[in-house]
Design a protein that fits this description.
711 residues; two-stranded antiparallel sheet; disordered C terminus; alpha+beta; 41% strand
């Protein structure tokens, strides 16, 4: 075999082709995967064996850092895979509150036992397969400025974000309590939540809670139910119904909240009922006169610092109410209201002068006055103005009333505007219609000076007397007379009684020309002869002409003296003297009529009104009349029976009054006869007789003091 052939036949070593790069990568990936699996298995084994108790410190730091709070586990701690779900077990867990909070911690629990979906910690919403929470307690607070709360965690441009509930498939939550504090509203609530059990991520039935607390120093109790707990934990709607009891009032609230602790811009249906509406608004520091039993409903919407009650309807006592109310909880509490009433029961109006309406309805005005601290037989209330409360809030109220239900006083078309600013309460204007006459008032209670400065300015437009006095037995037919007047008084005091007891001013009521029923006028004038004559002639309804009249009083230091009382009729001049006292409520008035024409059996003797405001007395048998009867008896015995009649004869020498000063409401000194002479039968608050004119000023002054009965 030649050399060439030999070379061909010899075997040649051919190098193997290099391994594909892909296979090498697979080996690397496999090795890495095996390493990871091994590591995970090792970690799993370590955690399973140790129960992950050594992770307690890192868990506190990492989770606490995410929350921006300090987290502590005071008891046993476990964190491991069991087998593929993360098991978290912790005892005596606490999460701190921000430094401004009034109480620590924000959250605590005796035990948390949860199974967590591992991947949910990385992607998407947190998911718990199960949760067992025992004796959890949460502290929910707002800061004083309402700018921050304790359930907003972390930091950032918007100050973090509120806590979000994880998805929980199965849960048992027992012994949970919640404390809620809102310093701006002065609200503190401590609530116990019923045990919650859920399966398949559904709680199913409503979750109830109950508890109590304080709102503006008033204790309350509350029960509530969350009707949509499943939607709540899934960040959906929160249907809530609640009933609270405070100061004798029951308040029901129902609505759907965007989040469990947020009522901003949410329409809530509110109902309230109780024995006295003033106790309800008194909870938030608003002063209101007492009312009888009330029932109200409204829609409440909170917008910032405003709580707006719209579509308000209801009743208080026998009075209907409708309108709106806005309460602003700003730097100063402010109440604004528009209220309309179709029919106001006069008893329900009693609180506006300080009476308790229930006492008025049951026992009368005197008993109601006594309940305010007034003395025996007094009718003016002695209830003190709530000075300190009136300085704590402001108010603007507009109230209209269609008609007032009253047996004696026909009042309708009330229009009242109230302004309360830093302790100064102004009723201006306060207008109403009385017996077809218009009354306009401006009343001011200024509690800033001590004692309060009070002013009354009440103006009565011409009003038909027949209609005005119809409730007191005066028929309207045949009476065309009218009355107009004005009361201007200023005083000092923290009660209506005190302000009037110190009042100075003038009261004047003018009677323009008109007619009255004879039976009404002749009795008051005590012209017995004319009355008996017309009674037998069946002419009692014949009108008697009133030329002009003035019932005027000058008030000094709470004492009103007649200045003057002068009524000029076609047949008589009726004069009055005396007065009354706002201090003691004593009445001491005397009226007499002097005939312009001859009249038999005219008593020519004063008719007295005495007693007090609560129980006035009326006397027609006066000492002067008895003396006249004695003179008549003496004449009859000495002379003849005809001579005895002369003691009761009115010779008819009364001087007619010039109506100009009367209709101008002028004082006694300005009054004149039709002849232009100054009247000598009126003056200084008394009706002067010829004998009075001969008395010295000191004697007249002494007589007036005894007459008024106030010294």
């Amino acid at each position: 075999m030649d050399e060439a052939t030999q070379r061909i036949e010899q075997p040649v070593d051919i190098p193997a082709p290099p391994a594909p790069r892909l296979s090498r990568r697979r080996r690397i990936a496999r090795n890495i995967l095996l390493g990871v699996v091994g590591t995970v298995a090792a970690v799993w084994l370590v955690l399973f064996v140790t129960k992950g108790r050594f992770l307690k410190g890192p868990f506190e730091r990492i989770v606490g850092g995410q929350l921006g709070r300090e987290l502590r586990v005071g008891g046993d701690f476990q964190l491991y895979f069991a087998p593929f779900r993360i098991k978290l077990y912790a005892e005596r867990v606490t999460v701190s509150n921000p430094g401004w909070a009034t109480r620590q911690p924000f959250f605590r629990a005796d035990r948390i036992d949860a199974r967590i979906a591992p991947l949910s910690l990385i992607w998407g919403r947190r998911r718990l397969y199960s949760l067992d929470l025992l004796n959890g307690a949460a502290d929910l607070e707002y800061d004083g400025a309402h700018a921050a709360n304790t359930w907003t965690f972390g930091s950032g441009k918007k100050g973090g974000k509120p806590f979000e509930f994880p998805r929980i498939d199965e849960a048992t939550v027992a012994g949970t309590t919640v404390r809620y504090l809102d310093p701006k509203m002065r609200l503190l609530a401590d609530l116990d939540i019923d045990t919650i059990r859920s399966t398949d991520a559904r709680i199913g039935r409503a979750v109830g809670l109950h508890g109590g607390g304080m709102v503006r120093d008033t204790p309350f109790t509350v029960t509530a139910r969350l009707l949509s707990p499943d939607a709540t934990v899934n960040r959906g709607k929160n249907e809530l119904v609640m009933q609270a009891h405070a100061a004798g009032n029951t308040i029901d609230v129902a609505g759907t909240l965007p989040s469990i602790a947020d009522i901003e811009d949410v329409p809530l249906q509110v109902r309230a009922r109780g024995g006295n509406l003033s106790t309800l608004l008194g909870i938030i520091g608003v002063t209101l006169p007492n009312t009888r039993d009330y029932r109200l409903r409204a829609q409440l919407v909170k917008q910032g610092e405003e709580y707006r009650f719209t579509r308000l309807t209801g009743v208080a006592g026998n009075t209907d109410l409708a309108g709106r109310l806005t309460i602003t909880n700003g730097e100063r509490l402010h109440l604004a209201s528009e209220i309309a009433t179709r029919s106001l029961d006069i008893i329900d109006a009693a609180p506006f002068i300080g009476f308790n309406p229930d006492i008025v309805a049951a026992r009368g005005a005197v008993a109601a006055a006594a309940a305010t601290g007034a003395g025996p037989a007094r009718i003016m209330p002695d209830a003190r103005f709530p000075v300190e409360t009136m300085r704590q809030f402001d108010a603007d109220v507009h109230w209209t009333v269609g008609v007032v239900k009253s047996r004696n006083v026909p009042i309708s078309d009330i229009d009242a505007t109230l302004d309360l600013t830093r302790g100064k309460l102004t009723l201006s204007p306060l207008t109403f219609t009385m017996a077809r006459g218009h009354v306009a008032s401006d009343i001011v209670f200024d509690t800033r000076p001590r004692p309060s400065a009070v002013s009354y300015d009440i103006r009565l437009a011409p009003t038909p007397l027949g209609r005005l006095l119809a409730g007191y037995g005066v028929a309207e037919a045949g009476t065309s007379g009218t009355v107009k007047g004005r009361i201007q008084l200023t005083g000092r005091g923290d009660t209506i009684h005190d302000s009037l007891s110190s009042a100075n001013g003038r009261m004047a009521f003018i009677l323009p020309q008109g007619t009255f029923w004879t039976r009404n006028v002749q009795l008051s004038e005590l012209d017995l002869g004319t009355f008996v004559q017309k009674m037998f002639e069946n002419r009692l309804k014949e009108p008697v002409q009133i030329n002009c009249g003035l019932i005027g009083f000058t008030v000094r230091g709470g004492v009103a003296a007649a200045d003057p009382i002068l009524i000029d009729t076609s047949k008589n001049v009726m004069l009055g003297r005396g007065g009354f006292s706002f201090r003691t409520e004593a009445l001491d008035l005397a009226f007499r009529a002097d005939g312009k024409k001859f009249s038999l059996f005219s008593a020519q003797s004063p008719v007295s009104i005495n007693g007090n405001f609560a129980k006035p007395g009326f006397s027609v048998v006066s000492p002067e009349l008895l003396g006249r009867a004695g003179v008549g008896l003496g004449l009859a015995l000495v002379a003849t029976p005809v001579a005895g009649i002369l003691a009761f004869v009115d010779v008819g020498d009364a001087k007619s009054a010039a109506c100009g000063p009367v209709l101008a409401g002028a004082g006694a000194a300005a009054q004149r006869t039709t002849g232009g002479r100054a009247r000598d039968d009126v003056g200084r608050g008394t009706t002067a007789t010829a004998e009075d004119g001969r008395r010295s000023p000191d004697q007249r002054r002494s007589q007036r003091k005894r007459f008024l009965g106030i010294f």
